[in-house]
């Protein structure tokens, strides 16, 4: 370890049995998946008994080699030092670790006190003074939630806190379990966590309301149940009390239908990690209203008295139950998935170093394969989504891209084994002939590559439907993008029932979706919006400008699509004239599958690169169509944008998507570029304060990348789900 500079060092007391260790483990695993190095620096907390061993979660990290434990007698060098648990510094340290860090963040993962005593656990000002004395006054203080932030402000109003919370993260793919109905004949209510009196309501009547003692429900408690039993004076017959650690939380959550959590009214819960774990596992949660800032609309809120009614309503309405589960699962991935952690590390200059999978060793187990079939499409949307998932599959699984798109060469360049299927348009074939060709081609590819899963990102054409019926031994997944035009495509939904599963890439504008997929959404596995790159993979501004040979003037990127449906040339000259008059450098992105050349504009640079999103930080503004890929890249990466929706698409509701972006303040929109509306929008976009406002709003409404969650879910299907022949 001497001479090694780690990406991240985490300093804490690793004996904590609950959320602190779970949070550390989650971050270490996310860092390991991105090929980032982590060193753990153990500092005993004065309020912890000396005889406690390391948490099993921490021991597992060290045993598996995903983190290194620092030795007491060796210095540590790192790019980022994360310090967790302020209570370590309630007394002077006996020995100060020798750590050199470029940046240091103190994660405030516990409030200083509670409602009754704001100083119950530690004196924030005293802890701050010690931390600054040990690590310097440039330490950044990041609360774990808005609740902790408010508590700190209460005791030290002038505390300098980071603008963003250092929120918890979770690997949703690890926790998620497909559920086939309810656990038993009556609803099963449960909760898990370490045993602590403040984790339970004080009033026995509230305990009986939240965790009924009647025979029409069952109650399972993992950890701390003895506290509730003592307050009740007896153990109810319908309660199953399991000691903390006797079952793994992942397995415990499979045995309950509802997660219910209420606690001492004086407790300021720092975050609520067990709530997040339940959401990620597919269990609806019922919690107090004070958790809403953390979990938004992903939970059900009420008082203990509301629990019996909420449980009965959902138990009687399986469709609503599934909708609540899907919403919570998507929220957990989007807000608290691994990619959210990698994105914040990128803000500290620590970027993913994902390595390609090692080549297969002769004689080793055969890799599982996913055959990914894409439509030709007007742009790169279908094939990009599949590649985004394929590049994130685990090491024992590989993707074969079979596409009708002109972008087959792009998939090959990105390192995928690629098969080209000529489209019906290319063959100029009638429907009957095309159906036979597609069916036969898929049969050949299945025989050749022996996939365990076939993922189809296109409409269920007759040739595909027949191929599904020809091969019932394979798991078939329809990767079905939402946001269809209103009143279009209902027949496709019916045809799509032939698939075993539906995977739905998330849609930022989902609330504005009026298409036919909305009614069928509860049956789909939903993830956050899928983009080819994670934010951490984007070049920084200077590197991107250097690669594109741009100078220090503001730069604008025009990417109005492939030009295969609508005429993209007509507004370009006006846009370029207007923006060059305001001192902007002009870059025109030519699609890799465009069938018409990009119009040449004097003074404008034309680039033909994939993925162009890698260079987005070079630009102060983009003018873009509102297709799925560019829409979510520009909003997700907080690039100020003027959307010109393509209204000539047959299925994709670009207008609805762009209108929603304008309504939420994340972008400007021009629906009629032939009118003066175009120049009016450009006049706004050239103003720095307008662009700054758009970028700020994008960050406020940001979302993660669902590619990893989709890959994790897809990779688990062969082991868990087979169709009967």
UniProtKB/TrEMBL annotation:
Top-level taxon: Bacteria
A Pfam family per the record: Glyco_trans_1_4
Name this polypeptide is given: Antifreeze protein, type I
Organism encoding this protein: Paractinoplanes durhamensis
């Amino acid at each position: 370890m001497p001479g090694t500079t780690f990406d991240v060092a985490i300093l804490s007391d690793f004996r904590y049995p609950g959320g602190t260790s779970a949070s550390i483990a989650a971050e270490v695993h996310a860092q390991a998946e991105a090929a980032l190095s982590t060193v753990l620096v153990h500092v005993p907390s004065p309020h912890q008994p000396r005889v406690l061993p390391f948490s099993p979660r921490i021991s597992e990290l060290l045993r598996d080699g995903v983190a290194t434990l620092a030795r007491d007698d060796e210095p540590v060098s790192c790019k980022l030092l994360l310090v967790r648990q302020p209570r370590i510094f309630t007394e002077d340290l006996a020995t100060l670790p020798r750590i050199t860090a470029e940046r240091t963040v103190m994660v405030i993962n516990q409030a200083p006190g509670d409602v009754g005593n704001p100083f119950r656990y530690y004196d924030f000002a005293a802890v701050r003074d010690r931390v600054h004395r040990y690590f310097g006054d440039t330490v950044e203080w990041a609360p774990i939630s808005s609740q902790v932030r408010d508590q700190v402000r209460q005791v030290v109003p002038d505390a300098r806190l980071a603008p963003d919370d250092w929120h918890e993260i979770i690997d949703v793919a690890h926790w998620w379990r497909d559920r086939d109905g309810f656990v038993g004949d009556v609803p099963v209510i449960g909760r898990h966590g370490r045993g602590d009196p403040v984790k339970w309501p004080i009033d026995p009547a509230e305990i009986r309301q939240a965790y009924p003692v009647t025979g029409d429900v069952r109650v399972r408690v993992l950890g701390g149940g003895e506290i509730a039993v003592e307050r009740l004076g007896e153990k109810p017959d319908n309660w199953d009390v399991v000691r903390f650690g006797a079952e793994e939380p992942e397995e415990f959550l499979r045995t309950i239908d509802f997660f219910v959590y209420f606690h001492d009214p004086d407790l300021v819960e720092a975050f609520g990690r067990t709530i997040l774990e339940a959401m990620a596992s597919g269990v609806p949660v019922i919690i107090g209203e004070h958790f809403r800032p953390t979990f938004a609309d992903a939970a059900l809120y009420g008082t203990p008295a509301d629990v019996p009614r909420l449980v009965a309503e959902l138990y009687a309405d399986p469709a609503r139950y599934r909708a609540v589960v899907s919403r919570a699962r998507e929220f957990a991935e989007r807000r608290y998935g691994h990619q959210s952690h990698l994105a914040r590390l990128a803000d500290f200059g620590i970027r993913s170093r994902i390595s390609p999978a090692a080549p297969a060793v002769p004689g080793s187990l055969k890799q599982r394969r996913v055959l990914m079939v894409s439509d030709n499409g007007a742009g790169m949307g279908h094939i990009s989504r599949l590649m985004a998932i394929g590049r994130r599959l685990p090491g024992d699984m590989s993707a074969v891209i079979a596409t009708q798109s002109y972008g087959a060469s792009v998939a090959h360049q990105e390192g995928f084994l690629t098969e080209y299927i000529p489209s019906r348009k290319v063959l100029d074939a009638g429907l009957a002939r095309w159906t036979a060709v597609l069916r036969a081609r898929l049969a050949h590819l299945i025989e050749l590559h022996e996939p365990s899963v076939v993922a189809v990102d296109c409409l269920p054409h007759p040739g595909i439907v027949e191929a599904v019926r020809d091969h019932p031994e394979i798991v078939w997944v329809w990767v079905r993008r939402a946001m269809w035009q209103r009143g279009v495509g209902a027949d496709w939904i019916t045809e799509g029932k032939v698939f075993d599963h539906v995977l739905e890439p998330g849609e930022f504008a989902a609330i504005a979706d009026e298409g036919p997929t909305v009614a069928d959404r509860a049956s789909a596995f939903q993830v956050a919006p899928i983009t080819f790159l994670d934010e951490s993979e984007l070049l920084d501004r200077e590197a991107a400008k250097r690669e594109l040979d741009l100078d220090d003037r503001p730069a604008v990127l025009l990417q109005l699509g492939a030009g295969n449906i609508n005429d993209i040339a007509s507004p370009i000259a006006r846009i370029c004239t207007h923006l060059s008059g305001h001192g902007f450098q002009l870059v025109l992105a030519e699609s890799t599958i465009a069938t018409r050349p990009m119009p040449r504009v004097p003074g404008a640079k034309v680039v033909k690169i994939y993925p162009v999103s890698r260079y987005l930080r070079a630009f102060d503004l983009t003018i873009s169509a509102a297709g799925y890929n560019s829409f979510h890249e520009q909003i997700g990466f907080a690039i100020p944008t003027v959307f010109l929706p393509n209204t000539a698409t047959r299925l994709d509701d670009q207008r609805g998507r762009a209108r929603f972006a304008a309504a939420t303040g994340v972008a400007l929109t021009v629906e009629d570029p032939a009118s003066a509306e175009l120049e009016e929008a450009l006049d706004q976009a050239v103003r720095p304060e307008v662009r700054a406002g758009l970028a700020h709003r994008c960050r406020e409404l940001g979302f993660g990348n669902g590619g990893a969650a989709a890959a994790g879910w897809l990779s688990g299907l062969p082991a868990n789900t087979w169709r009967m022949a």
